Amino acid sequence: VKGIVNTIILSAIGVIIGAVLGTLIALAKLSKIKIISWIAAAYIEISRGTPLLVQVFIVFFGTTAALGLDISAFICGIIALIINSSAYIAEIIRAGINAVDKGQTEAAQCLGLNYNQTMKNVIMPQAIKNILPALGNEFVTLIK
Predict the structure, then answer these.
(1) If the chain, 144 residues long, is cut into consecutive pieces of 10 residues, what is the mean pLDDT of each piece?
(2) Domain definitions of the chain by residue range
(3) Which of 44, 50, 60, 68 minimizes the number of CB atoms within 10 Å of its CB?
């Protein structure tokens, strides 16, 4: 029972913090500033291209052996799950944003909304509808 509770807690924290970080990374990848977009793309490709177990080992042994920090295995597991899930969630959010019809952005611009207002009031509410099923799948994947 304790293992189930710890698994759910780890997964919930990983998805919640990963969603916040993933949103920022997705917006960075969609940025028109090339260097920011490249950094975000590199983070996503590296995080998605390495197995989760390797990331757990790197975080655990990297913080304890290489950096000399005394961090518990539970915290290292949370950090590794956040790193992994934020990359996957960034791609989910980016795909959800890109799935919204371009006419919505054009209509918002015709109404005089700037980029931030368009994203906040027009694009993101529609994208969230597309994103929710995939976020549920990500949570289930983290539990596994």
Answers:
(1) 89 91 94 94 95 92 81 89 94 93 92 91 92 90 84
(2) 1-143
(3) 68
Token digits for 85?
Answer: 């899930």
Q: What is the 3-state secondary structure (H, E, C) of the chain?
A: CHHHHHHHHHHHHHHHHHHHHHHHHHHHHCCCCHHHHHHHHHHHHHHHHCCHHHHHHHHHHHHHHHCCCCCCHHHHHHHHHHHHHHHHHHHHHHHHHHHCCHHHHHHHHHCCCCHHHHHHHHHHHHHHHHHHHHHHHHHHHHHC
**Predicted TM-score of the model (pTM):** 0.86
Predicted confidence at residue 106, as pLDDT, reads 92
